[in-house]
Write a structure and sequence with these properties.
Arc Repressor Mutant, subunit A, five-stranded parallel β-sheet
Length: 224
């Protein structure tokens, strides 16, 4: 039997889920809680295999409750069951250690299947949540490319983004034109871009350089 604890501040939600799970041959609801603190206390007392965790609750929210439960009862697997899919809620919940993330729009059957999969060690994610995480990982990997640049290459990149020519960069940094060209070549290779314009877009995109004068990004890159 998969022992489940339901943590949600809406009684009707708990009742609906509990009623469906109660007739499953392989799932047992061993407790319910209406706030994060109570959920934490019951998790430590009852030792559930899976915790269905709401995010927005009084006393203690689902993210903090998840952190505390997994810290003190790491055998549990937490499934976030929420109405929210905003970035500011998705990332903290996953970072807190939640194994799965599903929405309350899921059917009772889908929730039961998510419990079974999560209990087996499989992550269950709403497609939109999965896409958000993939994009986030891509962005983190992308910005990490900047860390590979030397301090001088970063200076050159900022000047490229400001629309300066190689000769202007050489004059401002008091280096030779040949040296600037070498730096530019290295920057393009490290950032994995084809030309100066794309390097400038990278700089604006990641906040390395802010567009000036109220012009939009396209206006700046078109002038490079």
């Amino acid at each position: 039997m998969i022992k489940v604890l339901i943590v949600d501040d809406h009684e009707m939600v708990r009742l609906g889920i509990s009623s469906y799970l109660g007739v499953q041959d392989d799932i047992e609801v061993i407790g319910e809680a209406d706030d994060g603190q109570q959920g934490y206390d019951k998790a430590l007392a009852l030792h559930p295999d899976v915790v269905l965790m709401d995010l927005v609750m009084p006393v203690m929210n689902g993210v903090d409750a998840t952190k505390k439960i997994l810290r003190d009862w790491p055998a549990a697997k937490v499934i976030i069951l929420t109405s929210f899919i905003d970035d500011e809620l998705v990332y903290p919940a996953i970072e807190a250690g939640a194994a799965s993330y599903i929405l309350k729009t899921s059917t009772a059957e889908e929730i039961a299947d998510a419990i079974r999969q999560t209990a087996r060690g499989q992550a269950v994610m709403e497609q939109e949540v999965s896409d958000k995480l993939k994009n986030r990982d891509k962005n983190e990997s992308d910005i990490a490319l900047y860390d590979d640049l030397t301090s001088r290459e970063r200076e050159v990149l900022k000047l490229i983004a400001q629309g300066k020519s190689n000769q202007e960069i050489a004059d401002e940094l008091f280096i030779t034109l040949k040296t600037v060209k070498t730096h530019v070549s290295n920057i393009l290779a490290k950032l994995e871009v084809d030309d100066r314009t794309k390097a400038a877009i990278y700089a604006f995109k990641h906040g390395i350089v802010k567009p000036s004068g109220g012009d939009d990004l396209d206006g700046h890159t078109a002038a490079l």
